[in-house]
Design brief:
Blueprint: H1 5-13, H2 29-37, H3 41-51, H4 62-75, H5 80-91, H6 98-114
Helix pairs in contact: 1-2, 1-3, 3-4, 4-5, 5-6
Length: 116
């Protein structure tokens, strides 16, 4: 049984760095996505940092990683470091997202320029 979003993700998708722990629950992506949708920012960050510590690795599907960053930025829209991290994740997945990644980087620079 998992008690965190990270554990749930590990059970559904596996983990490149650690073995998937035994779990007595059935796993379907829909239940994970529901938990992801309502997760707190710290839970989202913990999952991203633990399961994809270098952005290019891990077993989280790209769609899940991008959704997690989107949900995180909706809850923490004014954190330049997170904006840049989300942009870096988007750049890794092809030119379709380059415009969005560029906009996130510009927003991060704008926020930093306003700081005293």
């Amino acid at each position: 049984m998992h008690t965190t979003l990270t554990e749930h993700a590990r059970c559904v998708y596996g983990d490149e760095y650690r073995p998937t722990p035994p779990c007595d629950r059935g796993h379907d992506e829909a239940s994970f996505l529901e938990e992801l949708t309502f997760a707190e920012p710290d839970a989202l960050l913990a999952m991203l940092r633990e399961l994809t510590p270098h952005l290019v690795d891990g077993h989280l599907p790209v769609r899940v990683r991008n959704l997690a960053y989107r949900l995180l930025l909706l809850q923490r829209p004014d954190e330049p470091e997170l904006l840049r991290e989300a942009a870096d994740s988007l750049w890794l997945h092809g030119p379709d997202w380059d415009g969005r990644a560029t906009a996130l980087r510009a927003r991060a620079a704008e926020l930093e320029a306003r700081r005293p």
